[in-house]
Amino acid sequence: MKDLKQEIEIIKKRNERVEADKARETSTLRKIIIMLLTYAVIVLFLYTAKLSQPRTNAIVPTIGFMLSTLGLNTIKNIWLKHRNK
């Protein structure tokens, strides 16, 4: 019985960690940070490549990246719904 209680506690702690990771993955702050870092890396690249208007031109790929990552969750949900039928 003691082993069973220990296993239940281990599972509860694991579930708490999984829930915290899930909350972090879906947080708005995380998405904003990723978008800002993506923008900064692209601006740095465009400056290094000596292309014109790097700060303006970095907006398009940043938005494209964010749209693609935001759309993945929707696609995953549709896939799961059809898979479970």
What does this structure look like?
This protein has 85 residues and is mainly α. It has one domain. 87% of the residues lie in helices and 0% in strands. It has 4 helices and no strands. Helix 2 (28-48) packs across helix 4. The longest helix has 25 residues, at 59-83. The mean pLDDT is 87.
Summarize the structure.
The protein has four helices and no strands. By secondary structure, it is an all-alpha fold.
Termini distance?
Answer: 39 Å
* Helical content (DSSP H or I, runs of 4+): over 70%
Shape: elongated
Q: Tally the structural domains.
A: 1
Biggest sheet statistics: none
Which regions are unreliable across 5 or more consecutive residues at pLDDT < 50?
Answer: none
Total number of beta strands:
0
Q: Which sequence of SSEs, written as H and E, runs from N to C?
A: HHHH
Strand content: under 5%
| Whole-number mean pLDDT | 87
The number of helices is 4
Structural class: mainly alpha
Rg estimate, integer Å: 20 Å
What does the secondary structure layout of this molecule look like, with pairings?
Layout lengths: L1 H24 L2 H21 L5 H4 L1 H25 L2
Helix pairs in contact: 2-4
Question: Could you name the key traits of this structure?
Answer:
85 residues; single chain; mainly alpha
